[in-house]
């Protein structure tokens, strides 16, 4: 049985494409793509749930590992791409966080909610007046 496994491993490693797919240079970045996918999915959610500290930490993490992906030999361009996408999405999340909590986005949202409520109230009064 051990000889069969050894022969299968040698067969897989003899082809450069299957050797790459069976390596950590492939599976590390593939498993790491969950972070940018989650960040991209969070872009459509309310900015109130964004953690500024976590966004900052993930931005620095991605920038650091973009450099690491190019420093290893051979360079891991899949890992670099994963962290480039994550860095971009975290920068967008960081902008949304700053806009909402520090540049008046929270106040604008509250004001829009008040105005929307008044408009609905006026529309209800107009409908009641027309139906009389």
Automatic annotation (TrEMBL):
It is a multi-pass membrane protein. Keywords: Membrane, Mitochondrion, Mitochondrion inner membrane, Transmembrane, Transmembrane helix, Transport. InterPro entries: MPC. GO terms for cellular component: mitochondrial inner membrane. It is found in: Mitochondrion inner membrane. Pfam families: MPC. One of its GO terms (biological process) is pyruvate import into mitochondria. Mediates the uptake of pyruvate into mitochondria. Belongs to the mitochondrial pyruvate carrier (MPC) (TC 2.A.105) family. This is Mitochondrial pyruvate carrier.
């Amino acid at each position: 049985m051990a000889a069969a496994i050894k022969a299968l491993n040698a067969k897989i490693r003899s082809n450069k494409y299957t050797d790459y797919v069976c390596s950590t240079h492939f599976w590390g970045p593939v498993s790491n793509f969950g972070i940018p996918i989650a960040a991209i999915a969070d872009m459509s959610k309310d900015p109130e749930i964004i953690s500024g500290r976590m966004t900052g930490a993930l931005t620095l993490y991605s920038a650091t590992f973009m450099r690491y992906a190019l420093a290893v030999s051979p360079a891991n361009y899949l890992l670099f791409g994963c962290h480039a996408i994550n860095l971009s999405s975290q920068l967008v999340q960081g902008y949304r966080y700053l806009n909402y909590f520090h540049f008046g986005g929270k106040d604008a949202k509250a004001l829009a909610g008040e105005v929307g409520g008044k408009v609905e109230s006026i529309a209800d009064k107009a409908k009641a007046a027309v139906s009389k």
